[in-house]
Amino acid sequence: MSIILAIEIDVLSFRIKARVGRDWVVAWFGVLLVDLAWNQAVNSSLRQRNFTSRFVDHRVFGNMPLSH
């Protein structure tokens, strides 16, 4: 009797793990898609505003010394 109960608990925990694992994969893909969409939106808005790459580079790397 206890063996059958242990097997049922193992099956149940395996099902829970499988479900959680699948949810993790779905969540990861969702984050990936949101990230891609966000990058696309940022890139297109940057292009629409006619930012030159030089201006963006100056904003991003302006505080870094160019020569070490």
Would you kindly provide a written description of the structure presented here, covering whatever features stand out?
The protein is mainly α and 68 residues long. It has one domain (2-61). It is 82% helix and 0% strand. The protein has helices at 2-48, 53-61. The longest helix has 47 residues, at 2-48. It is rod-shaped.
Q: Specify the overall morphology.
A: rod-shaped
Counting DSSP E segments of at least 2 residues, the number of strands comes to 0
Helix percent reads over 70%
Alpha-carbon Rg, integer? 25 Å
The proportion of strand residues reads under 5%
Distance between the termini: 73 Å
Unreliable sequence segments? none
- Tally of distinct domains: 1
- Secondary structure category: mainly alpha
Order of helices and strands: HH
* Number of helices in the DSSP assignment: 2
Task: Determine the mean pLDDT.
Answer: 74
How many strands, what sense, and barrel or not for the largest sheet?
none
